Amino acid sequence: MKRMSIFLVFLMVIGLNFSTTSDLQAAGPHIVTTVAEAKASGIDAEVELSGRIVKMIQDDKFLFSDGTGELLVLIDGKMQDLNYENAKVVVSGLIAQNFMYTEVKADSIAVR
């Protein structure tokens, strides 16, 4: 009788695992669209943020805001020597965690 109970519990756990996995796969990847969501998301979450550049920190780093918060955006290489401060942009990339704050490693930045 005890073996039968363990076997039934085992089957229920496997069934729950399969249904949860299929639900997640059907939903597809979630793309983060706000700074507030980005700060709550895990590393390597995809982002597509619309907002503005608050301040250029270096040629490859700037402070971004969308009204829900601010975060650092890192880019490969240098941004062109244009004045981007207060420019409205769309940033696409991945979340990266630093020791004390959330940042985005940008794949692309488009000025709107």
UniProtKB/TrEMBL annotation:
SUPFAM superfamilies to which the protein is assigned, alphabetical: Hypothetical protein YgiW
Residues annotated as signal peptide: 1-26
InterPro entries referenced in this protein's UniProt entry, alphabetically: BOBF_sf, CarO-like
Protein name in UniProt: Bacterial OB-fold domain-containing protein
Keywords attached to this entry: Signal
A Pfam family: BOF
Keyword Cell wall biogenesis/degradation: no
